[in-house]
Protein backbone atom coordinates (compact mmCIF):
# COMPACT_ATOMS: atom_id res chain seq x y z
CA UNK A 1 0.00 0.00 0.00
CA UNK A 2 1.28 3.46 -0.80
CA UNK A 3 0.04 6.57 0.96
CA UNK A 4 0.63 10.17 -0.01
CA UNK A 5 1.08 12.57 2.89
CA UNK A 6 1.04 16.35 2.51
CA UNK A 7 3.95 17.23 4.81
CA UNK A 8 2.82 20.85 5.01
CA UNK A 9 -0.74 19.94 6.02
CA UNK A 10 0.36 17.20 8.42
CA UNK A 11 3.46 18.76 9.95
CA UNK A 12 3.07 16.91 13.28
CA UNK A 13 2.80 13.58 11.46
CA UNK A 14 5.85 14.42 9.35
CA UNK A 15 7.84 15.29 12.45
CA UNK A 16 6.76 12.16 14.33
CA UNK A 17 7.89 9.98 11.39
CA UNK A 18 11.08 12.02 10.92
CA UNK A 19 10.27 12.97 7.32
CA UNK A 20 12.92 15.47 6.30
CA UNK A 21 12.78 15.07 2.51
CA UNK A 22 10.37 13.91 -0.13
CA UNK A 23 9.76 11.39 -1.30
CA UNK A 24 10.27 9.22 1.77
CA UNK A 25 9.14 5.60 1.68
CA UNK A 26 8.56 3.59 4.86
CA UNK A 27 8.32 -0.18 4.86
CA UNK A 28 6.25 -1.49 7.76
CA UNK A 29 5.64 -4.93 9.21
CA UNK A 30 3.17 -5.42 12.06
CA UNK A 31 2.96 -1.63 12.39
CA UNK A 32 6.70 -1.25 12.90
CA UNK A 33 9.21 0.31 10.53
CA UNK A 34 11.50 -2.33 9.01
CA UNK A 35 13.12 -0.17 6.34
CA UNK A 36 13.11 3.34 4.91
CA UNK A 37 14.12 4.94 1.62
CA UNK A 38 14.59 8.66 1.14
CA UNK A 39 14.69 10.01 -2.38
CA UNK A 40 13.38 9.13 -5.82
CA UNK A 41 15.69 6.20 -6.53
CA UNK A 42 13.47 3.91 -8.61
CA UNK A 43 15.87 0.92 -8.81
CA UNK A 44 16.43 0.99 -5.03
CA UNK A 45 12.68 1.34 -4.38
CA UNK A 46 11.93 -1.63 -6.62
CA UNK A 47 14.61 -3.69 -4.85
CA UNK A 48 13.23 -2.84 -1.39
CA UNK A 49 9.67 -3.68 -2.47
CA UNK A 50 10.82 -7.13 -3.62
CA UNK A 51 12.74 -7.74 -0.37
CA UNK A 52 9.85 -6.63 1.87
CA UNK A 53 7.34 -8.57 -0.24
CA UNK A 54 9.41 -11.73 0.23
CA UNK A 55 9.60 -11.19 4.01
CA UNK A 56 5.89 -10.52 4.62
CA UNK A 57 3.74 -13.68 4.47
CA UNK A 58 1.15 -13.66 1.69
CA UNK A 59 -2.54 -14.26 2.39
CA UNK A 60 -3.92 -17.29 0.60
- Count of alpha and pi helical runs: 2
| The CATH homologous superfamily | Glutaredoxin
Percent strand? 15-25%
CATH top level assignment: Alpha Beta
Predict the CATH topology: Glutaredoxin
Q: Tally the beta strands.
A: 2
* C-alpha geometry: globular
Low-confidence stretches: none
The structural domain count equals 1
Give the second-level CATH assignment, the architecture: 3-Layer(aba) Sandwich
Note the run of SSEs as H and E.
HEEH
Indicate the mean pLDDT: 89
**Distance between the terminal alpha carbons, to the nearest Å?**
18 Å
- Helix fraction by DSSP (H/I, runs of at least 4): 25-40%
**Arrangement of strands in the largest sheet:** 1-2
Radius of gyration, in angstroms, nearest whole number: 13 Å
Write up what this structure looks like.
It holds the Pfam family Thioredoxin. The chain is an alpha+beta fold and 60 residues long. The protein has a single domain (11-55), classed as Glutaredoxin (3-Layer(aba) Sandwich), CATH 3.40.30.10. Helix content is 33%, strand content 22%. The chain contains 2 helices and 2 strands, in the order H-E-E-H. A two-stranded antiparallel ribbon has the order 1-2. A hairpin with a 2-residue loop joins strand 1 (24-29) and strand 2 (32-38).
Care to give the gist of this entry?
This protein is of the alpha+beta class and 60 residues long. Helix content is 33%, strand content 22%. InterPro entries: Thioredoxin-like_sf, Thioredoxin_domain, Thioredoxin_H-type-like.
Amino acid sequence: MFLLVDVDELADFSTSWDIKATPTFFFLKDGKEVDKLVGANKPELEKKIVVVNDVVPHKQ
